[in-house]
């Protein structure tokens, strides 16, 4: 054995980040090297609680060889996540600082950067599920009754009427997103404490549960303000053609001569009246008919929920645990909905003429637009619909580091409450749900891109380098094409039922102060006389997009993206090809963006 390999009983004296091992109360030290049943169930190193390790900069391969060579190098990539702690929000009223992240032009910022919540001198209480029998039914914003719209306006007006320093005020509620997203809180209470590391609830598996809790309390606060225990939020049903424009109740500046509480002056004026939202918006309006835009939107929703959301991590986003920096963040992957339709709507609504794209175009200011909450209500609904599709692999994360991650909010009684991801998964317990047409087949469910006609394709004669011939990282200041070897070809239907083929764009390093967007196409081999490939076509794998956010100490952040390929290869008649030609097309904010690696993997589908 090499002298560089340290036995487990060696005394490590170091100031490096401590690694807390998950525990097993009845067994001694053991190593589990079983194959993971799915992509997010990492191989776990299990130690007794009393046997915590503090490791210096030891190579993980050497560590496991020192344990007896029980695991192969191929299974080591997830070791840090298996030996960590969940993200734990601190007392938000005592551990908070001004927003400093993702705001390029702070001097001219439209909204305040002082995003800390008011302190009422209260201690944090544990969350208790609501005991009422009534289920709040969220309703489609484009099709609300007169009573629903009037109640909603009255509740928002009541919230606006509160003094700004009240925890239920419109301003205080808007600041929640700013503080959690733009560097307001650190990880002092996460694991053994990381006071110099900020919390970031985007770009990881925290995205969905955080926003669900945010809306949960926001909705209950609004209901209490108008003394209506049945009050429910509307949702912007942009996944249905009739619901794709900004709902009418948000458009007028005044109602009956009085200011409309749902209006926000900082919206893109070109997208307000009679405009169909673009769920793949890249900063430029597309000159296409409304019918085409609607079809493309439905394909985007299908792509977000089915093709690119085929497994837990692809849908929720990458692992994010105590000690991870929002900047490096162990190279996680952003979830399919978050990077797709979610970010597109933020950017499409925000006013691009404002210094930082206020309001919706920047995370620090997004909460000041009432549209933010109905948009995120539909994003939350995407989680529900994704789960209800019943497709193998559509399950929430099961790791303790996800289940036990926690946030702190003011509830409807002005009490500070700590909530956990594990308590966010059951809508029946949370006493809210979404109105759906029981007879409706969701239009996006039938919007898988049409299979490409072979007559429109041609065998490419272009010489394209393989990944092995490409020197990474590669700057994406121009179109990048690369051939990527596939792990398997011509898989049988039975084999496809056991694993999804997934394209990984890894170590995407980008300027977090900018809006960033690039598109990904695979096997685009159309004849020259065919129209250019668009996001409506089967060759379009998806896009990577980010709203400005991050750590101002280092404006550059790192992320990854995942795109499902199983259906794409079928729809482009290229399932038998040994290599896939991957094309990355920069759209905006990519001048300094670099790509660290590109690969294709088979991601196991867990058995039902």
UniProtKB/TrEMBL annotation:
Q: Which cofactor does it need?
A: Cu(2+)
Lineage, top-rank taxon, reads Eukaryota
Residues annotated for Cu cation B binding in this entry: 342, 346, 376
**Does the UniProt entry include the keyword Phosphoprotein?**
no
At what sequence positions does the UniProt record place the cross-link 2'-(S-cysteinyl)-histidine (Cys-His)? Answer: 181-202
Which molecular function term from Gene Ontology is one that the record holds? metal ion binding
User: Which annotated residues bind Cu cation A?
Assistant: 177, 202, 211
Q: Which family does it belong to?
A: Belongs to the tyrosinase family.
Q: Which PANTHER family match?
A: CATECHOL OXIDASE, TYROSINASE FAMILY MEMBER
Name of the protein this chain belongs to: Tyrosinase copper-binding domain-containing protein
The species this protein belongs to is Deinandra increscens subsp. villosa
């Amino acid at each position: 054995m090499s002298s560089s390999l340290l036995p487990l009983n060696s005394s490590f004296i170091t100031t490096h980040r401590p690694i807390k091992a998950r525990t097993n109360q009845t067994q001694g030290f053991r190593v589990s090297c079983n194959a993971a049943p799915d992509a997010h169930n990492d191989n776990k190193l299990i130690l007794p609680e009393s046997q915590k390790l503090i490791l210096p900069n030891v190579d993980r391969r050497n560590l496991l060889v020192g344990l007896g060579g029980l695991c192969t190098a191929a299974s080591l990539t997830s070791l840090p996540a298996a030996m960590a702690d969940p993200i734990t929000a601190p007392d938000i009223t005592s551990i908070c600082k001004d927003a400093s992240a993702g705001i390029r032009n702070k001097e001219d910022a439209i909204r305040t950067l002082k995003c800390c919540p008011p302190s009422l001198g209260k201690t944090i209480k544990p969350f208790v599920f609501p005991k009422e029998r009534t289920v709040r039914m969220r309703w489609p914003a484009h099709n609300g009754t007169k009573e629903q719209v009037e109640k909603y306006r009255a509740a928002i007006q009541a919230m606006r009427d509160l003094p700004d320093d009240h925890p239920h005020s419109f301003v205080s509620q808007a600041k929640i997103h700013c503080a959690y997203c733009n560097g307001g809180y650190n990880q002092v209470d996460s694991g053994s404490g990381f006071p110099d590391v900020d919390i970031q609830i985007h770009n990881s598996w925290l995205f969905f549960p955080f926003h669900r809790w945010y809306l949960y309390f926001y909705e209950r606060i609004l209901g209490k303000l108008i003394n209506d225990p049945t009050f429910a939020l509307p949702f912007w049903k942009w996944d249905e053609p009739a619901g794709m424009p900004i709902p009418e109740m948000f458009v007028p500046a005044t109602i009956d001569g009085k200011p409309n509480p749902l209006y926000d002056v900082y919206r893109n004026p070109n997208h307000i009246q009679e405009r169909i939202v673009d769920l793949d918006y890249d900063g430029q309006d597309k000159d296409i008919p409304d019918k085409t835009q609607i079809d493309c939107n439905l394909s985007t929703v299908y792509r977000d929920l089915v093709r690119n959301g085929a497994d837990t991590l692809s849908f929720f986003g990458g692992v994010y645990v105590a000690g991870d920096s929002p900047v490096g963040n162990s190279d996680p992957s952003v979830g399919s909905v978050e990077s797709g339709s979610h970010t597109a709507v933020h950017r499409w609504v925000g006013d691009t003429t404002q210094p930082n794209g206020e309001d919706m175009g920047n995370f620090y200011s997004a909460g000041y637009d009432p549209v933010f909450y109905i948009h995120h209500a539909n994003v939350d609904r995407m989680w529900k619909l994704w789960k209800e599709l019943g497709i193998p692999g559509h399950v929430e994360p099961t790791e303790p580091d996800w289940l036990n991650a926690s946030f702190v909010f003011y509830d409807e009684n002005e009490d500070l409450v700590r909530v956990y991801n594990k308590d966010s998964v059951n809508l029946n317990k949370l006493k809210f749900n979404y109105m759906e047409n029981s007879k409706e087949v969701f239009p996006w469910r039938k919007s898988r891109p049409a299979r490409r006609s072979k007559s429109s394709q041609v065998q490419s004669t272009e010489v394209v380098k393989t990944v092995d011939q490409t020197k990474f990282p590669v700057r994406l200041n121009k179109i990048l094409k690369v051939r990527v070897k596939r792990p398997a070809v011509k898989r049988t239907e039975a084999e496809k039922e056991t694993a999804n083929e997934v394209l990984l764009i890894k170590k995407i390093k980008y300027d977090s102060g900018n809006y960033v967007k690039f598109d990904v196409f695979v096997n685009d081999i159309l004849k020259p006389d065919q129209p250019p490939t668009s996001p409506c076509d089967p060759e379009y794998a998806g896009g990577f997009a980010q709203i400005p956010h991050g750590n101002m100490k280092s404006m550059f952040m790192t992320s990854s993206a995942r795109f499902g390929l199983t259906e794409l290869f079928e729809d482009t008649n290229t399932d038998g090809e040994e290599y896939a030609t991957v094309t990355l097309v920069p759209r905006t904010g990519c001048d300094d963006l670099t790509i660290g690696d590109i690969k294709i993997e088979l991601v196991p589908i867990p058995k039902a």
